Amino acid sequence: MQVSFKILRQAENAEPTVQTYILDVEPGNTILECLNRIKWEQDGSLAFRKNCRNTICGSCTMRINGRAALACKENIGNELGKFSGMAREGVAEITIAPLGNLPVIKDLVVDMRSFWDNLEAVDPYVSSSARALELREFLQTPSERSRLDRNGNCIMCGACYSECNAREVNPDFVGPHALAKAHRLVADSRDTATEIRLENYNKGTEGVWGCTRCLMCNAVCPMDVAPMDRIGNIKQEILARKDAQASRSIRHRKVLINLVKKGGWIDERKFGLQVVANSGRDLKGFISLAPLGLRMLARGKFPFLFESSPEKTKVRSLIESVQKLTSSPSRHEE
Questions:
Q1: Which of 31, 223, 296, 320 could link 71 by a cystine bridge, Cβ 3.0 to 4.6 Å?
Q2: Do domains 2-106 and 112-241 have the same CATH topology?
Q3: pLDDT score recorded for residue 106
Q4: Would you call 44 exposed, middle or buried from its count of C-beta atoms within 10 A (0-12, 13-18, 19+)?
Q5: Measured between alpha carbons, how far is 10 from 22 in angstroms, rounded to an integer?
Q6: How many CB atoms lie under 10 A from the CB of residue 125?
């Protein structure tokens, strides 16, 4: 079959252009195989990264039909099967572009410096400085090691970083890749710097509270690391150690859970007052709510009454069951 590859080409600090290449391909051909053929047979100037060709190194990550994926993993048949109607005049189309949230060097090659710098920022190394180690292996039980399985699968491909909406609007956010690695250290029985790490990861929107929980990182991760879930694990560790006065981010989570436990869903009258105004303790926060409150009143959208959910007992039971589960010693285990 014939496939038209529409590739976004771009030189550094230049406007991108779309260039089209048509190949005769088989359904089992990977996107990387097709890119190799384009480079070898049609245009030797096309630039992209590759290495292992076996879903191990993460080098060939790029946006394929609008989402970050490994070119060595995705094949023509599966790609066309995901999107019906991807054809014009009988020729199927596949679009390929560089990763997002990273500056382009050339064509599909991006500058990964911010990606690596943000990983370094979470100090991604096991610390044993507080423990006197003998000259032997530091053994772990199978249960302790199993806590690292999920996040240990990360191949640093950059897919989650590319599609991270929080990173796109907040350049200070370290990114899901870094926080997934951070959770690996929090869960590691050999590490002695857990409390220091959690304080660092708790820094406003730079750390875990910068995540908008959009699920894009989970959706594109080729290794099922589920970075958003790992960020959630770190949040639970922080929440277990902090009270609602520690920060607005922590208060937001605790108030939300308490209100839902009480009424089955959020009482919007209380949520802003308890979180932003800190139940009257934060005068500046209270004043900041006034414009929104006035607009809601003017448009008849201010909720004067609150009706609890008829299923509030079931909701409370579910929340308490989850809280009990996550507070158990095996909370890190998958």
A1: 31
A2: no
A3: 97
A4: exposed
A5: 19
A6: 11
Lowest mean pLDDT among 30-39, 84-93, 154-163: 84-93
Torsional sign, CA 219, 224, 226, 227: negative
Tell the CATH topology of 2-106.
Ubiquitin-like (UB roll) (3.10.20)
DSSP conformational letter for 40 = I
* Secondary-structure class of domain 112-241 per CATH: mainly alpha
Domain boundaries, the chain: 2-106, 112-241, 248-326
What would the pLDDT profile of 74-95 be if each residue is shown by its tens digit? 999 999 988 765 555 568 999 9
What's the distance, Cα to Cα, between the start and end of the chain in Å? 43
pTM of the model: 0.86
Please report where in the chains the tokens 């201010």 appear, as a residue: 302
Burial grade of 83 (CB within 10 A; 0-12, 13-18, 19 or more)? middle
For residues 192 and 186, the answer to whether their CB atoms sit within 8 Å is no
Strand (E) or helix (H) holding 19: strand 17-24
C-alpha–C-alpha distance, residues 314 and 320, integer Å: 10
| pLDDT given for residue 139 in this prediction | 82
Give buried/exposed letters for 280-317 (b at 16+ CB in 10 A, else e): eebeebbeeeeeeeeeeeeeeeeeeeeeeeeeeeebbe
Of 85, 91, 89, the residue nearest 3 (C-alpha): 91
Q: DSSP letter string over 166-196?
A: HHHH-TT---HHHHHHHHHHHT-TT-S-HHH
Q: Is residue 230 packed enough to be buried (19+ CB in 10 Å), middle (13-18) or exposed (0-12)?
A: buried
